[in-house]
Amino acid sequence: MFVHIEEFWDSEKVKFYSLRIEDADYFETDNFIERFSDSEHKRDLEVIIEALQTIGGKRGAEERYFRPKKNARALPQIKGAKLRLYCIRVSNDIVILGNGDIKTARTDQECPNVGPIFEFMNKLEAAFTNKVREKEIIVGNKNLIGDLILEIHYNRKA
To answer: Of 46, 91, 99, 151, which has the maximum CB count within 10 A?
Structure first.
């Protein structure tokens, strides 16, 4: 499958990108927000959005604001929150947002909801890092320049 990395939101300190899978008309992050905006996990979603606004407007994308999840990351970094939004923290001023779900197991890998998204984001991070290493993508000041279409060999279930 082909995954397009496209600009999602340019805030004061951070430019957020999101993912669009092949011919989808929507970003993965929009899908996430829409699914949980009127759910019992609305408060967790509000916490994630507030965290993104704070990171983007005041703090920058410092490592300490993200949950380490192998090579990808997750928001929020708040104990007790069940909802996870997965992302790739590229630098202090660039974050690639993905999709997420409700974590129902002890680990991400064991969870039927977030496990496939976790695996997908880690494969995406590996493909992204490879393109950066090969200089097909250049990481600049709040910008990603180059071939922002990644081919991921993965049968996505999420």
So the answer is: 99
CA–CA separation, 9 and 109 (whole Å): 29
Domain range annotation of the chain: 2-151
- Give the Cα separation of 16 and 48 in Å (integer): 14
117, amino acid identity = I
pLDDT per residue as tens digits for the range 78-133: 677 789 999 999 999 999 999 999 999 988 899 999 999 999 999 999 999 999 99
The whole-angstrom separation of Cα 24 and Cα 131 is: 23
Q: Report pTM.
A: 0.93
Residue spans of beta strands (DSSP E) within 47-130: 67-69, 72-75, 83-91, 94-102
- In this predicted structure, what is the pLDDT of residue 77? 62
Map residue 138 onto helix, strand or coil: strand
Q: What counts of helices (H) and strands (E) characterise the chain?
A: 3, 9
- Which amino acid is it at 81? A
Query: Rounded to whole angstroms, how far apart are CA atoms 118 and 82?
Result: 14
**Residue 55 DSSP code:** I
Tokens 């991921």 found at: 152
